[in-house]
Amino acid sequence: MSQHVNGTQCSLCGAVYAPDEVRYVCPKHGDVGLLDVLYDYEKIKSLVTPADISKSRDFSIWRYFDLLPIADHSIVPSLRVGWTPLYNAKRLGNELKLQNLWLKDDGLNPTGSLKDRASAVVVAKAKELRVEVITAASSGNAGAALAGLSASGHVPAVVFVPHTAPEAKVAQLLIYGARVFLVKGTYDQAFELSLAASKEFGWYSRNTGYNPYTVEGKKTASLEICEQLALAKSHDSRRSWKTPDRIFVPVGDGNIITGLWKGLRDLLALGWIEKMPKLMGVQAEGSAACYNAWAAGTETITPVDAHTISDSISVGLPRDGVRAVRAVRETQGAYLTVTDEEVLEAMRKLAREEGVFAEPAGATGYAGLAKAMRENLVDHDEDIVVVVTGNGLKDIHAAVKAAGQAKMINPSLEELGRALAS
Ligand SMILES: [Zn+2]
Questions:
Q1: How far apart, in whole angstroms, are the C-alpha atoms of residue 12 and residue 28?
Q2: Rounded distance from Cα 184 to ligand 1 centre (Å)
Q3: N or C: which end of the chain has fewer CB within 10 A?
Q4: In what helix (H) or strand (E) does residue 108 lie, and over which residues does it extend?
Q5: What does the pLDDT read at residue 187?
């Protein structure tokens, strides 16, 4: 464990554990007491400054090595994860009457989703712990991320996927050489089976939330947003970075929004940013357990029967639901839900206006922003970042649904002329 890690703390009861004392969750309440990693911020400040990081030529998550819970830089997987672009989306901004709209395109990670960030840190941790096998349950992207990063880090992976996962996602797992099991059941059942297998065979579990380091990986997305926004706004990034006013994030199991929040809390504690942005969680209407809890003013997550085109955020029981609800409540943000139709429209908008091809879940954050603008929840002069969490090639059936079919013609100029005129 790194010298700047103080330990872990249970998000439910507040119990504090020494570094490496507990591998996964707080032993006091089964599999639900998720742990936050605690840092010695004074120590970090003595190791590194924003100026040091700004000078780094490492354009990956590992430029933030001193803010991550890994002790030895030589064990990190070589696959390049992170430092994805933050695009200034002027056309979509104009359309929504927003002066400053930014898209963080995390579909450009090596396996095509933000989850590469989590897997990179977990694979490094697995190497630190010298485990022999890593396992995870996944609706697709987390599994692909684990398979890719495990291949890069040379640690065997076993992945459990619900049998309904899109073909392209399963193909991705297989090509990276992971052992893949298609579970005849839901994501939640695949999750339970993966946990049971981890306990039975001693495999290291990457399961989202259950493993405290997935959040540590995902937090790098908000570290980048703040550093990149400072660069884009020509702010002097040697001393401090910039936060937007709001960040729109798709929410399924709740771990991504929790990760973004953790990164922001770390930066605030270090004094590297001045304020906490409002986190805006966007869920599919058919998979809205976090929204429901937030709207009811509770932290009790009631499972739902999840159905949505956004398969990556189709989650009946969000494993990181409690922290995901807190992330929004404590930052004075809001939860929104969007329909599948609104998601398909968001996919078209992102691709046609800005050239960003998102899978349905990846476009859900933008769908939420469009709805928030219609409902006057956002002022026109606010700085807005939308996180696009996954690449459109992950699910081509959904893309065809959003874009329609191409017209078939004979190889004849005459016929082309008629087709163009019609
Ligand atoms: Zn606890």
A1: 10
A2: 32
A3: C
A4: none
A5: 82
Given this model, what pLDDT does residue 138 score? 87
Give dist(CA 388, CA 384) in Å, integer. Answer: 13
pLDDT in tens, 13-45: 999 999 989 999 999 988 889 999 999 999 999
Q: What is the pLDDT of residues 63-84, one digit of tens each?
A: 999 999 999 999 999 999 999 9
Output the CA 305–ligand 1 centroid distance in Å: 28
Please give the full DSSP string across 382-411, using - where no structure is assigned. Answer: SEEEEEE-BBGGG-HHHHHHHH-PPPP--S
Tell me the two tokens of residue 365.
């954050």
Which pLDDT score, from 0 to 100, does residue 233 have?
86
256 Cα to the center of ligand 1, angstroms:
21
Q: Count Cβ atoms within 10 A of the Cβ of residue 379 and give its class: 0-12 exposed, 13-18 middle, 19 or more buried.
A: exposed
**166/156 Cα distance (integer angstroms):** 23
Q: How far is the CA of 263 from the centre of ligand 1 (A)?
A: 22
Which H or E run includes 119?
A: helix 115-129
Residue 236: the pLDDT is 77
List, for residues 388-420, the tens digit of each pLDDT value: 999 999 888 999 999 999 999 999 999 999 999
Distance 34 CA to ligand 1 centre (A): 8
Reading the block at residue 364, the tokens are: 């859900």
C-beta of residue 121 within 8 angstroms of C-beta of residue 142:
no
Q: Which of 312, 309, 284, 307 is closest to 169 using CA atoms? A: 312
- Output the CA 320–ligand 1 centroid distance in Å: 14
CA 10–ligand 1 middle distance (angstroms): 5
> How far is the centre of ligand 1, averaged over its atoms, from the C-alpha of 12 (Å)?
5
Is the model's pTM score more than 0.90?
Answer: yes
**Rounded distance from Cα 293 to ligand 1 centre (Å):** 20
Buried b / exposed e along 397-413 (16+ C-beta atoms within 10 A): ebbeebeeeeeeeeeee
Say what the pLDDT of residue 31 is. 81
